[in-house]
Amino acid sequence: MRWMWGVVGLVVVVVAVAVVALSLALGQSSTAVSELELGDCFDLTTLSPGVADQAVETVERVDLIDCEEAHLTQVVLVGELNPDGDLDYPSDTVLFEQIDRRCVEASSLVGDQFGLLPVAPTEISWNRVGGRFHCLAVPFGGRAWTGTLLRSGPSG
User: Fold this and answer.
1) Which DSSP helix (H) or strand (E) runs through 78?
2) By the 8 A CB rule, do 111 and 148 touch?
3) Given a cut of 80, is residue 14 above it in pLDDT?
4) What whole-number distance in Å separates Cα of residue 43 and Cα of residue 137?
């Protein structure tokens, strides 16, 4: 009878290890914002209510969604402000002015039902990712949509 309890205990330990491993694997499926690619779709649910009233909201990772599924955000422009890695990190004002200007230039890509949210590199990632920035399309009114906003699909 003792051996049966030993087997049950071993099974419980194996199942617990499998659950922890699965949780860790699923937790690593998210994508760093700095690694987002043109056309990527996801839900930007980490923004605080009233985020438009806040100066900066920090989002480090997102879970990508197939664009054919309902989603709230799509990357419509990716660019670099420091491609050679030789520029000093600018002030927040200068950084967001540069990115906002590029996002406004891309507004024709999304139409008047979407706003563009600029995403800036951090000071830590500035040289590592070439000053990579993103412009994210988000629908006015927060209604999810399916499909892509890019004319040639997710690959741009």
Assistant:
1) strand 73-80
2) no
3) no
4) 11
